[in-house]
Design brief:
Strand content: 15-25%
Strand order of the largest sheet: 3-2-1-4-5-7-6
Radius of gyration: 17 Å
Structural class: alpha/beta
CATH architecture: 3-Layer(aba) Sandwich
Helix content: 40-55%
Distance between the termini: 59 Å
CATH topology: Rossmann fold
CATH superfamily: Vaccinia Virus protein VP39
Order of helices and strands: HHHHEHEHEHEHEHEE
Length: 220
Amino acid sequence: MSNDLVSLGIESLGLNLTSTNIADLELFLQEMGRWNQVHNLTAIEGEKNSVRLHLIDSITVLPVMRRFLGLPNPKIADLGSGGGLPAIPIAILQPEWHLTLIEAIRKKTAFLQHVRGKLGLKNIQVLSERVEVVAKAQPGQFDAVISRAFTNLAYFLELSLPLLNPNGLVFAMKAKRADQELQDVCMNDWRLVADEPLEIPNLAVERRLLVLSPVRKLPL
């Protein structure tokens, strides 16, 4: 993979990547491609599609997350992390953020641990557990929760709520079905903070990032 191919999609995002950032992102995709041949980490194959639909799709959320996460060292949980998306690209570009990757399938957590060591990502933690188990062990410990194509929005919010601290935010990466999924969310329990369109350079697909916060009810 050439630097030009990565930069083609990333330059327009205004993230000011360093050569080290690009090298680490490339290495991550190379390792994903290598492991995918044996372990079926993702259904999307090929260099061009991987760059556009995996890496760039994942980091388009960064400008929005930076805007809403005012803390210097936020703690973020990535639910159903799979092959490490969006958490690994975010961890590469935001070394001061702490990311916990929650994934129940062990062959995928093995890959995540491998990438963590290969890239020296000291700002990530990999948990080979179901989200519900982590929520019981670490209630209210996270400033934000994110996922990419993990489950429907209503269930994602249900899983996220126990993990969030009182001021926590949910970042839900969605596509065209976002409006339909929002209809299934009880807006007495959640507030839609932002609905941000995400443009993947050189790819005509609709992406949106929904930012939601829980409405905390006072105890009776």
